[in-house]
Amino acid sequence: MIFTHNDYITEALEATIGCHEFIADFANPQRFEQCCRECPAYGRRWGCPPHDIDWIEKLAAYSRVLILGTKITPHNTSLPADVSLDLMRPETDKLNRRLLDMEREQNGTALGFAGKCPYCGELPCTRPQGLPCRHPELVRPSLEAVGFDVERTCRELLGVPLQWSSDGKLPPYLVIVGALFHH
């Protein structure tokens, strides 16, 4: 299913926090690694754990974190919940492009990629075959994939609690979130 901005409205969300404060208050790598282990994509996609670097250690070298989010309110919430990734895809692509541009401009590190990788199309990820990523210049792990509590981040920093589907239907709104760690 292909969705366009005519199918929903968006609200841009933004917060800035000190890097060390964000790590101390919102990171719990052990907890979220365990959650990721329950996902069938664990170890099968380049944006997913386990990672070959200590992301928290890498990110701690920065001084600031810019949290960017997009609240997506579909016009039709009677749609089935399984279309949520398709509904979010155009906005996720925009957010990821913005984060990658900011990463280059500010010599920072972006986290934001969530869900199925859009860069290889229908081709399977190369990770299960032990091959390098086809697009390492584009793929970034999500905040949760490196150990951050996205639900708490959205609620406390962006002022928008996450909503979940019920009865197999879309929730009232969806939220995508990413971050730029920078100086």
Number of domains: 1
* Unreliable sequence segments: none
Mean pLDDT: 94
Tell me how many strands there are: 4
- Cα(first) to Cα(last) distance is 40 Å
Question: What is the radius of gyration computed over CA atoms, rounded to a whole number of angstroms?
Answer: 16 Å
Oligomer: single chain
Q: What summary fits the major beta sheet?
A: 4 strands, antiparallel
Following the backbone from N to C, one meets helices and strands in this order, namely: EHHHEHEHE
Strand order of the largest sheet: 1-2-4-3
**What would you call the shape?**
globular
**Percent of residues in helical segments?**
25-40%
Strand % is 15-25%
Continuous helix count: 5
Please describe what this structure looks like.
There is one protein chain. By secondary structure, the protein is of the alpha+beta class. The protein has one domain (5-182). 29% of the residues lie in helices and 19% in strands. The protein has helices at 19-26, 29-37, 55-59, 84-106, 150-157, and strands at residues 8-18, 64-74, 109-111, 174-182. The protein has a 4-stranded antiparallel sheet, with helices on both faces. The longest helix is centred in the middle third of the chain and has 23 residues, at 84-106. The termini are far apart. The model has no long low-confidence stretch (mean pLDDT 94).
